[in-house]
Amino acid sequence: MMLADLVLNPCVHKVYGLNRKSGEDVRKRQAGGFARVGAEVDAHWRKIELLEGDLSKAHFGLEDEVYAKLRNVTHVIHNAWPMDFNRSLTSFRPHLDAAVNIVQLALDSTTAAPVRIIFSSSIAVVGCAPLVTGDSAPITEAPLLTVDAIDHFGYAEVKWVCEQVFVEAGRVFEGRIMPSSMRIGQLTEPEATGAWNANEHIPMIAKSALALGCLPLIEGMASWIPANRASRVMVELLFAPRPVAVYHLENPARQPWSEALEVLASALGLPAEAMPLPYVEWLACVRADTNTVRNPVGKIVPFLEDEFVRMAMGVVVLDTVVACVALPMLEGSKPLSEGDLRRYVAFWRKEGFLV
């Protein structure tokens, strides 16, 4: 989605897409990705050069003549990351190396202007901030200086470390590197297709609800933003004047969980009398059903007991004032519609994730 938004931007002349090696034809794989999210690039393919390499290696594991072409880049979006909440900080070492190598690319740049870098960070970086401060106010868009506020799992910890890498690079190499980290809240998939990855926790909750016969009762407000909107916001940020170190990306138009759950229950075909169970009781039912094929959230119970409660139910609220001032696309974002939610369920059914 973001690659499509970049090549459709008239200000962009060339985009290098660095992909992991997979054994598949890289252009065919990318075309499939475009189709999956409903993106049309047509003649703009001429702007795209797809490469395969390894971000954790020096020069990304590319041949010297290929890396030499990358030295002409003016803007970098570092958006590749495994969504795995069960891994330790040390297991993410290749991703730390990748951040350092991206800084090195910026230093190797032959362009006169500072190289603009956008790092896709996470709400999890500040996931424990309310517990540390005792303050329920929205969390400000600023570098986090204390590790106490980071959520206590490897994914969150390594995102914070990478934030610090880019903050420090911007300080030490001021005038050569212009980095920003975008802390991202809950993304849904594109509105047009409903293609939401079934390996994420919201689709997993939906599938487990079918096995258990009901959804959980979730209090508070949701701040979901579709990936197509988030992509346009990131591209807008890439070219924003006078950028700052940290921005927050979640939907400033928050909506009650109760409304979303009501639509999801209807779309899933749950009986009208199947009222949502109080969250703690629902989790007890999850633990009691050990079949994680039909009840996939059984695999992420620790996350649902702790991080999900804080980050998804309104305990952790990202302030988006700075981002909204700089990024009109974010400021104008609306809540998800009933049609959006129903398209997600329809997609999971089409993919065979739901029966």
TrEMBL record:
InterPro entries: Adenylate-forming_Reductase, FAR_NAD-bd, NAD(P)-bd_dom_sf. Keywords: Phosphopantetheine, Phosphoprotein. Gene3D superfamilies: NAD(P)-binding Rossmann-like Domain (3.40.50.720). Residues 5-230 form the Thioester reductase (TE) domain. SUPFAM superfamilies: NAD(P)-binding Rossmann-fold domains. PANTHER family: ENZYME, PUTATIVE (JCVI)-RELATED (PTHR43439:SF2), PHENYLACETATE-COENZYME A LIGASE (PTHR43439). This is L-aminoadipate-semialdehyde dehydrogenase. It comes from Grifola frondosa (Maitake). The lineage of its organism: Eukaryota, Fungi, Dikarya, Basidiomycota, Agaricomycotina.
